């Protein structure tokens, strides 16, 4: 997911570490290249600018140029700063799924991979934690999407709320909540409707559902291939309905990875998972340390 960025940074740092002694100008040049590499990966400009500024300040503070292995020290600083922009103040708390039944509200634009991700998460909680999971689709405008969720539920071996024609999203949310309590489920996922663009009707509907469902987590699913747009979508959703975490999908594609790097810094929201393919087990947790390691190769 970070192949290009990783390659670009690798090139910059190879040159630095091979050079032996470094001048301030060498470090300046390298950091300028880092900035360009970040921008080409579609990291947002303020984030890239800030990042490089912090690395430069740290390198100056640690008197990197006087050290025996200046290049390696710069790489170490970049590594630490990458972890900081990926994780913010630290790795997030575990998802709040205690006190069953816990409701998780899934939100996002149509085509972002929301339904697929809902099923992947259900599988993960069932297989790894032995949770009893119920899935409910609230996408009343798209019967096919409702059926799709039921099919995926069957594939991953969890239950889905029976579809009742003519119900509103809020009615389905209420029924799901009752069913989750009566049926002894640990987690109920509400897969809200998506639209091609953010619109007021969608947001009103999600707010109404949220007020009824009282979710412990509201996870926003965004397409990682869309780079900075993914971050803009996250900012808007968070402003309107309040998001507790983000899932970036299609990170198996040839996207440039910028969304992953900007998300936390711009929105303050943690990326929880990344989608790595269409299969039901193609979902990874997002850990800053591992991601930083991947970027730096
Ligand atoms: P929704 O409209 O947001 O519910 O989107 P869907 O869940 O129906 O997904 C749209 C398409 O994206 C489907 O063909 C999925 O298989 C595909 N998809 C979802 N997540 C990923 C991912 O992480 N990687 C890849 N390559 N495809 C994905």
UniProtKB/TrEMBL annotation:
<keyword id="KW-0694">RNA-binding</keyword>
<comment type="function">
    <text>Involved in targeting and insertion of nascent membrane proteins into the cytoplasmic membrane. Binds to the hydrophobic signal sequence of the ribosome-nascent chain (RNC) as it emerges from the ribosomes. The SRP-RNC complex is then targeted to the cytoplasmic membrane where it interacts with the SRP receptor FtsY. Interaction with FtsY leads to the transfer of the RNC complex to the Sec translocase for insertion into the membrane, the hydrolysis of GTP by both Ffh and FtsY, and the dissociation of the SRP-FtsY complex into the individual components.</text>
</comment>
<dbReference type="GO" id="GO:0005886">
    <property type="term" value="C:plasma membrane"/>
</dbReference>
<feature type="binding site">
    <location>
        <begin position="249"/>
        <end position="252"/>
    </location>
    <ligand>
        <name>GTP</name>
    </ligand>
</feature>
<comment type="similarity">
    <text>Belongs to the GTP-binding SRP family. SRP54 subfamily.</text>
</comment>
<keyword id="KW-0733">Signal recognition particle</keyword>
<keyword id="KW-0963">Cytoplasm</keyword>
<feature type="domain" description="SRP54-type proteins GTP-binding">
    <location>
        <begin position="270"/>
        <end position="283"/>
    </location>
</feature>
<protein>
    <recommendedName>
        <fullName>Signal recognition particle protein</fullName>
        <ecNumber>3.6.5.4</ecNumber>
    </recommendedName>
</protein>
<dbReference type="GO" id="GO:0005525">
    <property type="term" value="F:GTP binding"/>
</dbReference>
<dbReference type="GO" id="GO:0048500">
    <property type="term" value="C:signal recognition particle"/>
</dbReference>
<dbReference type="GO" id="GO:0008312">
    <property type="term" value="F:7S RNA binding"/>
</dbReference>
<comment type="subunit">
    <text>Part of the signal recognition particle protein translocation system, which is composed of SRP and FtsY. SRP is a ribonucleoprotein composed of Ffh and a 4.5S RNA molecule.</text>
</comment>
<keyword id="KW-0342">GTP-binding</keyword>
<keyword id="KW-0378">Hydrolase</keyword>
<dbReference type="GO" id="GO:0003924">
    <property type="term" value="F:GTPase activity"/>
</dbReference>
<feature type="binding site">
    <location>
        <begin position="191"/>
        <end position="195"/>
    </location>
    <ligand>
        <name>GTP</name>
    </ligand>
</feature>
<keyword id="KW-0547">Nucleotide-binding</keyword>
<keyword id="KW-0687">Ribonucleoprotein</keyword>
<dbReference type="GO" id="GO:0006614">
    <property type="term" value="P:SRP-dependent cotranslational protein targeting to membrane"/>
</dbReference>
<feature type="binding site">
    <location>
        <begin position="108"/>
        <end position="115"/>
    </location>
    <ligand>
        <name>GTP</name>
    </ligand>
</feature>
């Amino acid at each position: 997911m970070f192949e290009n960025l990783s390659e670009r940074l690798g090139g910059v740092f190879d040159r630095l570490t091979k050079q032996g002694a470094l001048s301030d100008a060498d470090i300046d040049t390298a950091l300028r290249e880092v900035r360009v590499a970040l921008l080409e990966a579609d990291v947002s400009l303020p984030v890239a600018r800030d990042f490089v500024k912090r690395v430069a300040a740290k390198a100056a503070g640690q008197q990197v140029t006087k050290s025996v292995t200046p290049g390696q020290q710069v790489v170490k600083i970049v590594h630490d700063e990458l972890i900081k922009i990926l994780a913010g103040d630290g790795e997030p708390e575990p998802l709040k799924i205690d006190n069953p039944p816990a409701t998780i509200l899934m939100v996002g634009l149509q085509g972002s991979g929301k339904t697929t991700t809902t099923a992947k998460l259900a599988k993960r909680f069932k297989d790894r934690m032995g949770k009893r999971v119920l899935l409910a689709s609230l996408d009343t405008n798209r019967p096919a999407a409702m059926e799709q969720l039921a099919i995926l539920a069957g594939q991953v071996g969890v239950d889905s709320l029976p579809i009742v024609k003519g119900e509103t999203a809020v009615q389905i949310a209420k029924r799901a909540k009752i069913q989750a309590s009566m049926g002894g489920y640990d987690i109920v996922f509400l897969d809200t409707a998506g639209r091609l663009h953010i619109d007021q009707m969608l947001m009103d509907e999600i707010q109404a559902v949220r007020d009824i469902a009282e979710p412990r987590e509201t996870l926003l699913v965004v397409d990682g291939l869309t780079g900075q747009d993914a971050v803009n979508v996250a900012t808007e959703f968070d402003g309107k309905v309040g998001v507790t975490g983000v899932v970036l999908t299609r990170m198996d594609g040839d996207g440039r990875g910028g969304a992953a790097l900007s998300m936390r810094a711009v929105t303050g929201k943690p990326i929880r998972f990344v989608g790595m393919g269409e299969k039901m087990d193609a979902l990874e947790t997002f850990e800053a340390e591992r991601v930083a390691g991947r970027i730096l190769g």
